[in-house]
């Protein structure tokens, strides 16, 4: 995203950072990216633990038809993101059997929901006038145009979500690791599942406005998967996921500022590199022992 | 058009098929539907819908990579989906990739797709390239040429034939992996081979319904079939029939109402089939 010919990368990293931060849109991108990274890492860690990865991906892409539909009827895209993601979370929660033994029918339902939602998004966008550029921004994100209002919205949603997770983290952990024993001990497993999925939907709706529906999933799954490759301990894993997500986002934004390649490419590539490194490191450690 | 159809149903069908683009769409769509239904039955049975989803997204990267490099679209589609299928099959134990590995790998593959899209749309012939990438994502079944329809038919029917050839051991390996392995069934090879087949089906189907939507054509008819019957061969036939029905009805709806995108119409019918089967099986 080179803005001016005058902005060049220099050997001095401090100068490079200062040059980038001179632009307000970059400041907003960093603020939004930081909030998105933290929320995605925390929610993503539980998503990976609970093997809800496919559900997470579906909730991520469902934001696209929500935004497209809202734009079509003349409303704010934000309303569409939240409405569709929360509705999809309720549907997924509804089709998940309490015992989670019928997983094959569950994944077929999730796949069908995802494809139908995307088809609706295509319909809405076509009726709207086939805005090609709009497609790209909704699906792949746009850090260039983050407004102050969006940053504030993100911050409010993030604080609420983290507060919810602070309250339910312990029982959610119990219910995620051993749902049968947790249920026998009086933990409301099914209710927790719904609360988690709705939280996941809200997190995705907020983040999609920045990262785009298709790429928000990268921040949800990869930092968490990387952390869980390195450690199985909950607190350490959560912190590590946040650190990885922040590094991926900041590095991606920084490199993306000076590069002509799209930001989504940098973020996913750096995230994947972190994951591959973690796996390689673990393999080496195991070989040495 | 509606009046004409109501007056003479036979004439209506003849009218639809009198257009070359509709004939191409029906030929390609039918073969793609058969393959999606048959492959989809095992995808759902093996709980590999997410793998199918990842491969359909890989089709997006393959297509845009080909467009950016200036090579034939279909070459990119097949190379990337087969490569990703092999990668997922090899990485996972017994040819089944873990969901987290799937998610991690395919987000990067998708990121590469974004890169290729940028290179493609900012190329020297940038006019209209944005529309081309939308077609990759959401399908362009009404824009198929005769040779493309023919290739789709060959690939689709070929995929069906291969699945039917290995259906019995694949069924065994899918239902009880450990016993199948103990009995000498090459479970891992079957798993990897099956994923490659899913990749091939994904590459071909993405031209009709698009990279983003084809998981629905794979999952919905097959999911519906498994809701309606426990018998494998009956379920297989039912999945194929439901997929073909979705494509045919979708194409007719699109013909009658030009403002409805064909991929939406096809997915709407497939979803209705799934919801209907769900409701039907829920009745005690």
Report on this structure.
Chain A is mainly α and 289 residues long. Chain A contains twelve helices and no strands. Chain A has helices at residues 13-21, 24-49, 53-72, 77-95, 103-128, 132-140, 148-177, 179-184, 189-211, 216-230, 234-258, 263-288. In chain A, helix 2 (24-49) packs antiparallel against helix 11 and helix 4 (77-95) packs antiparallel against helix 9. Chain A is globular and about 60 Å long. Chain B is mostly helical and 284 residues long. Chain B has helices at 2-7, 9-17, 20-45, 49-69, 73-91, 99-121, 129-138, 146-175, 177-182, 187-209, 214-228, 232-256, 262-282. Chain B is globular. In chain B, 58% of the residues are buried.
Can you write the helix and strand succession of chain B as a string?
HHHHHHHHHHHHH
Largest interface: A-B, 52 and 58 residues
Average pLDDT of chain B, rounded to a whole number, is: 82
Q: So what's the overall shape of chain A?
A: globular
Terminus-to-terminus distance of chain B: 42 Å
What does the radius of gyration of chain A come to? 19 Å
Helix content of chain A: over 70%
What is the terminal separation of chain A in angstroms? 46 Å
Indicate the multimeric state.
Answer: heterodimer
